[in-house]
Amino acid sequence: MIQLIDTIITIFLRDLIPHNSFFEPVFSFLSLNGFSLAIWVAIIIITTIIEEIHHPGIQKRDKKFIFYFILIFCIQLITVNYVLKPLIHRPRPFQPPRDFIASSTFDHPIIPINTCPADFSFPSGHAATAFTAAFVLSYFDKKRRWFYYLIAVFISFSRIYLGCHYFFDVVFGGLIGSLITWITLKVKYPITKRV
């Protein structure tokens, strides 16, 4: 039943925006063929340059940001890609289910637009990375938090639009990335304190 609901929501969201020569390249770029971290690295570089113009010299805050970004990203990457995905074994929307009964009746309407990874689907690594990056950036740069979360939402949506993930893969990926970030910052650098 949950699978059916997830599929219906996924198809609805996937078809919400037209699939054409404008939107497909845009959402493919946001996914960067599985390497959306490059978008966040570019955002960090641009943000750092802007901060450097306003506050010359490497600040203590900048060092903490870089340390926590790398630490949290590594924890999230290991948790999602090397623990949860292999443990849950959920096939991607375009792959047949792994059990015989479901696979014998497999007639799936979701066909990927772009090249999608062949690994497991749940949770979405793109969504986890996007919300990890947005959370860390927002924690250290509150002025632009709306921008960071907007990028995270677009990257996450791109995975549904391209047919690489189900809706719940993306939602739980975002929640897991946010939770890992919150816990790590809470333990290592209490949320109530500010630099």
Structure in words:
The chain is mainly α. It has one domain. The protein has helices spanning 2-14, 23-31, 37-54, 60-88, 100-104, 125-140, 145-161, 167-188. Helix 4 (60-88) crosses helix 8 (167-188) and helix 6 runs antiparallel to helix 7. The longest helix has 29 residues, at 60-88. InterPro entries: PAP2/HPO (IPR000326), PAP2/HPO_sf (IPR036938). GO terms for molecular function: sphingosine-1-phosphate phosphatase activity. Residues 65-185 form the Phosphatidic acid phosphatase type 2/haloperoxidase domain.
**Helical amount among residues, as a percent range?**
55-70%
- Strand coverage percent: under 5%
**What is the tally of beta strands?**
0
Domain count = 1
Number of continuous helical runs = 8
- Mean model confidence by pLDDT: 79
Largest sheet entry: none
Helix-strand topology string: HHHHHHHH
Question: What gyration radius follows from the Cα positions, in whole Å?
Answer: 18 Å
Distance between the termini: 47 Å
Gross morphology is: globular
- Strand-pairing-aware structural class: mainly alpha
Q: What ranges have pLDDT less than 50 throughout 5 or more consecutive residues?
A: 99-106
Organism: Candidatus Roizmanbacteria bacterium CG_4_9_14_0_8_um_filter_34_12
Protein name: Phosphatidic acid phosphatase type 2/haloperoxidase domain-containing protein
GO molecular function: sphingosine-1-phosphate phosphatase activity
InterPro entries: PAP2/HPO, PAP2/HPO_sf
Q: How are the secondary structure elements laid out?
A:
Blueprint: H1 2-14, H2 23-31, H3 37-54, H4 60-88, H5 100-104, H6 125-140, H7 145-161, H8 167-188
